[in-house]
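Page 37, top half.
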Amino acid sequence: MKKLLLLVNPNAGKGGFRNGLGEVLLHFHRAGYRTTVAFTDKHGDAPRLAAEAAAEKYDRIVCVGGDGTLGETVSGLMSAEYRPELGYIPMGTTNDSANTLGIRHDPVSAANTAANGEPMLLDVGRFNGERFFTYVAAYGAFTEVSYQTPQDQKNALGRLAYFLDGLGRLTNLTHRWTRVEYDDGVLEDDFIFCAVTNARSVAGVIHLKDDLGVSLNDGLFEVILIRTPESVLQLGTIVTDVLANKFESEYVTLLRSRKIRFLFRDPVSWTLDGEDGGVHREVLCENMHQAIRIVVNKNAIG
């Protein structure tokens, strides 16, 4: 019988993993897996447990949690020579990775995909040579608003309304001079936001539509850069353009690159998959091409 590790973050989704847990385990049993359940207690447990399962030659690891839990699990797999297939049961706030991969937020449906879906090769981002991210490394204003806004406000206000509701916080932020070195050239400007992505959904707010040609395993990042506007009115225009998928304007640039380096005059705080990425004067993001096999319903991928 094949071996499966169900790696659970019990704090994600207010403990929602309990709902349907019996059916989740039954899906794995019927798919021919002998399931071991492991819980994380603190930051750093998921990568350790994933690496240990890889060393023990598990056939599949299924993580239960938010985007951060998925990112930590991927980090553990990236440290291993042998990498089991990876399944995902989303239990987070934004669930950008699940939205991108077409994985339903219902745990039983997601478990069915994790048990019976098909593996798909997925690019992984490497951050400053030692950390990893699955869908976004970012800094700046929009990152802070989207991740700091409580979920009930997001649900009540809607995407555009809560985004605009955060403009007061945005205008208090200092713009950052940045040198951006990418495959095809160099940019230098003052930016309020940057996202290095391998996703179609970022922070539950930015959605890259199909006509932009986003691929999750082409070896390239999509990089969104937003220059510093001169007024709150212009900032509102930027928000509207981003939500409307207009990424080529005076203030918004979308580029693609396998490798991208950022140089700052002052230290800048980053997030990796919505979690703390540390403070850096220099950042290098590298695309690890098709590094992970993640289990999906290929007919449901957006």
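Page 37, bottom half:
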Amino acid sequence: MLSHVSHLLPLELKRLLDGLPAEVKGQLEEIRIRENRPLEIAYSGQSRFVTPDSALRTDADHAVKPTAEQCRKLLERITNYSLYAMEEELRRGYITVSGGHRIGLAGRTILDGGSVRGIRGIGGFNIRIAREVIGAASHLLPKLLDRARATIGSTLILAPPQQGKTTLIRDIARTVSYGSWPGGESLKWRGRKVGIVDERSEIAACVRGIPTFDVGPRTDVMDACPKAEGMMMLLRSMSPEVLVVDEIGRLEDAEAIREASHAGVHVVATAHAYDIHDAKGRPELFKLIQEGTFAQVVELKRTPEGIMHRIIQLGGQQAAPQRNAEAQPQSLLSFAGRNRLEEP
């Protein structure tokens, strides 16, 4: 996956990372570049520091330390040589580039009336590599169906960062849109109209409003739009049957989800939380769970054995933790790739 973002890197860092083992490059998830501090990568659920000879180590003593000039070149490339044009992204602390790859930024903030107006003196970058995994949802989706309405039930997916939430909901959107329903009589169900609110341009990876990931033929995407506003815009204009949204948690997100639910639209959403007990500590998530807005909650966990999930039916029935029997250890790509859905 290094090839997806290598064009952004200064030549010296690109050559260094090109020297990594092929299996590491193929499973690369994050590249953490910090000015004058050790270069770190994350892959297959583990992290390592990179030495000048492209070796990987758990200690930082002999790691490469990117220079100020290399960080400057990286910033110029990810902003297309125009910091001014990226003012809104800088205010939010990340930039999403073509392909849905999100680059987190750290530095000195600029305040305006107590609110963050931007970031200057940027010396930390986290390049998160997006990947399309066809079939990522195939093991889980049969357990999320609303058979009475012949569609997916409203679902809240919980996990800490970097557990595969976005990859999962992207594949759910694709499958529901195509109507590639798993198993038995549900194969006869038609595909549903799907609306994606893609505030960070990570789910569909749109370029000029056109998705570059396959999110299905019946899917409409509101790209680079605040979640709550985007949900309401789609409800008013595109008549979705299923809404898909990433990383909810604010009051306005909850209100938009309630509005969708009252309109008969099913919602598939993710949120940052270790488990449902953590989620209940976040007031707006707790209210949505308490009100029965979601039919089920899914907890995702990455373990050495693969991606684990637990489904909590909000009627009180709780499923035991389960693992895909064909999962390859520490590899979401292998896990999902061996469970591809066949189009009917």
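Margin note: The chain has two domains: 2-128, 141-337.
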